[in-house]
Design brief:
about 650 residues; alpha/beta; Arginase, Chain A; eight-stranded parallel β-sheet; 20 helices; 16 strands; about 35% helix; binds N-(4-aminobutyl)acetamide; binds zinc ion; acetylspermidine deacetylase activity; His_deacetylse_dom_sf; hydrolase
Length: about 650
């Protein structure tokens, strides 16, 4: 199952024909540089290239009015003067004799993408289109947009494929007010948007873009707006919103299809957004959405006006759609105060609609963000934006030759597409000596010795990026964990995140030196040891509370993992932990976003049934959806939340509110 790429040069054949400072950034080169970068990097070749088509009148009328469509139809025959005149009734948009044609292709591209994903021809895909769509309204063009490509695609998917629940993630830096308008009353379409807002001082300056616009009537709760009230938001701010808001709500909703309004004006260097998130963040945003809807994801280009960061961001997105591991994200130092204020307000506004937010603190009611900036703030912002921002282009990494390796007992059957690490007779004597000295003591156990020495070889190859990820079925899980952690943490720059699923004592000592971070999911309540680097997450009822487990994973484990930024993730499953295969696959899938996909799964020998699902997740297959989630058990919410509150002093990524309390 591949990744579709839709592009047609025809969509570069229109441009601004007069002087308009508001529109001069929307240039044909946006598309050519993006496509050329995909070709140059070899990514385009790895995609299934799909032809565009024109959206039909019927397609366009799914979202727009007949009057508006008829008006746009006349634009190819207008004189320059007529065109300028026509534009003047709308905000920040230009027309050209060929734009109607391109707008039909742009919307049609989104529909082609939906068709091929829904019919199972590809797993996911991206459409590079102009003009963009998310600002255009039923009756109006706006913000460079003529037809609302993604809104049309969502209506089309509802109609043609009877898709019950669609998630639209709008990571463009502008509010897609056209999309909001279209689905405000519709509980079948959940719309997320973050956008530069600055207390309504930023275009399109709508009161409707604030966090308290949650949707109407049956659609109440299905419109999620995150207004950014400052420029300069970073990777940490974006990831915090994903971990503490978008993902929990998305998992609870459980979409059948994910559409992305993929605008890259939210990246560093963009003259519109003035944000500071680096292009590699889009690999993570994409990755985090890829385990929803069984991986059915369609990304459609919206904005993005810096001709350097735009193609880099597009490449990161497409590379991730193809299944390559995401690069380790740079400098995650936690969200800023303004981002936390926004996050807190949105979570409060939505707590009555989503059980995953029920516990969100009801701190001082959020003021609606129309207040003025404090004195002096504007000067600071201006100064910031005067400097040309610089960032390091994420080095182009090839995925490892071996994407996943398996280390199984001699009679074990290696799962498909996995490389089998066979036991070899001749073990490296220096490794054997080390193992005997440190782990095995004097006991001579050939089988364990062979397993452990192969594990160290596997880790070395993962470190060199010759192997991406691995799984091992071992007889003695304790010894294996000790060996792996010791070996992997040895090099000075290495950090190991150990996710330990199962009861009992973690079999090695965790220092406070930060070389290892252990998060243990356990069903045993214990008062004991808990420190910055040893974190027991206690969940009642043998993990049958799936919503509780997912909540702990998204709002605790994931942010901790991102802040810790490990070089290796080790996931340990002791026997009979009782986690269902689907939940286990979600866990592995999400963790694959860390450590450049270097995930090593250790399981007890008798857990054979997990081998297949584990391998599949390590190889990047999307995890099966869990179904819409009910409310988590109150006792689990309470213990997870208590833990988060205790740990937030040590871990900035666990903050969810700006009110330091
Ligand atoms: C699609 C998009 C931006 C319009 C900005 C107008 N439009 N000032 O990014
Ligand atoms: Zn935009």
């Amino acid at each position: 199952m591949g990744t579709a790429l839709i592009y047609d040069e025809e969509m570069t054949n229109y441009k601004l024909l007069w002087v308009d400072p508001a529109c001069k950034i929307e240039v044909p080169e946006r598309l050519t540089v993006s496509y050329e970068a995909l070709v140059k990097s070899g990514l385009a070749d790895r995609c299934v290239s799909l032809p565009v088509r024109e959206a039909t009148d019927a397609d366009i009328l799914l979202v727009h009015s007949e009057e508006y469509l008829e008006a746009v139809k006349k634009t190819p025959y207008m004189t320059l003067e007529d065109l300028m005149d026509f534009c003047s009734q709308y905000g920040d948009v230009y027309f050209h004799p060929n734009i109607y044609h391109c707008a039909k292709l742009a919307a049609g591209s989104a529909l082609q993408l939906v068709d091929s994903v829904m019919m199972g021809k590809v797993r996911n895909g991206m459409a590079l289109v102009r003009p963009p769509g998310h600002h255009s309204m039923r009756n109006a063009a706006s913000g460079f947009c003529v037809f609302n490509n993604v809104a049309i695609a969502a209506q089309y998917a509802k109609q043609k494929y009877a898709v019950e629940r669609i998630l639209i993630v709008d990571w463009d830096i502008h509010h897609g007010q056209g999309v909001q308008d279209c689905f405000e009353d519709d509980p079948r379409v959940l719309y997320f948007s973050w956008h530069r807002y600055e207390h309504q001082k930023f275009w399109p300056n709508l009161r409707d873009s604030d966090f308290d616009r949650v949707g109407n009537e049956k659609g109440a709760g299905f419109n999620v707006n995150v207004p950014w009230n400052k420029v300069g938001m970073k990777n940490s701010d974006y990831l915090s919103v994903f971990c503490h808001l978008f993902l929990p709500v998305a998992y609870e909703f459980c979409p059948d299809l994910v559409l992305v309004c993929a605008g890259f004006d939210s990246a560093i260097g963009d003259p519109e957004g003035e944000m500071c998130a680096t292009p590699d963040i889009f690999a993570h945003l994409t990755h985090l959405l890829m385990n929803l809807a069984g991986g059915k994801l369609c990304a459609v280009l919206e904005g993005g006006y810096n001709l350097t960061s735009l193609p880099q961001s597009v490449c990161q997105t497409v590379q991730t759609l193809l299944g390559d591991p995401a690069p380790r994200p740079a400098n995650l130092d936690g969200p800023c105060l303004s981002a936390l204020e926004s996050l807190h307000c949105v979570r409060s506004a939505h707590k009555k609609y989503w059980s995953c937010l029920k516990h969100a603190a009801d701190l001082p009611t959020c003021e609606v963000s129309t207040k003025r900036n404090k004195v002096g703030e504007e000067e600071i912002n201006e100064e910031q934006s005067k400097q040309e921002p610089v960032w390091r282009e994420c080095p182009k990494t090839l995925p490892p030759d071996i994407s996943a390796a398996a280390l199984l007992p001699d009679d074990g059957i290696c799962p498909e597409r996995c490389y089998s690490l066979k036991s070899s007779e001749d073990l490296d004597p220096s490794i054997v000596n080390k193992l005997k000295e440190h782990i095995l003591k004097d006991t001579e156990d050939c089988e364990t010795l062979s397993t452990l020495s192969r594990l160290t070889v596997l880790i070395d190859k993962m470190e060199k990026n010759e192997i991406g990820s691995g799984l091992a079925l071992v007889k003695d899980i304790s010894k294996a964990v000790i060996c792996v952690v010791q070996h992997a943490a040895a090099a000075p720059m290495n950090r190991v995140l150990v996710v330990y699923v199962g009861d009992g004592v973690v079999p090695f000592h965790t220092n406070e030196d930060g070389k290892t971070l252990v998060v243990q999911f356990t069903t045993q309540k214990s008062e004991e040891i808990q420190s910055k680097y040893l974190i027991p997450v206690c969940l009642q009822k043998d993990y049958s509370d799936i919503p509780g487990f997912i909540q702990a994973t998204l709002s605790l484990l994931l942010p901790l993992g991102y802040e810790y930024d490990p070089s290796l993730v080790v996931v340990v499953q002791t026997s009979g932990c009782g986690l269902s295969h689907n939940v286990w696959q979600q866990l592995i899938g999400l963790l694959r976003g860390l450590a450049q996909g270097h995930t090593l799964v250790l399981m007890q020998e008798d857990q054979n049934a997990y081998v297949g699902p584990t391998a599949s997740s390590l190889l990047g297959d999307p995890a099966p959806p869990l179904g819409p989630l009910e409310a988590p058990l109150p006792e689990n919410v309470e213990s997870t939340e208590k833990l988060r509150l205790r740990l937030k002093a040590d871990w900035n990524f666990l903050l969810t509110t700006g009110n330091v309390k």
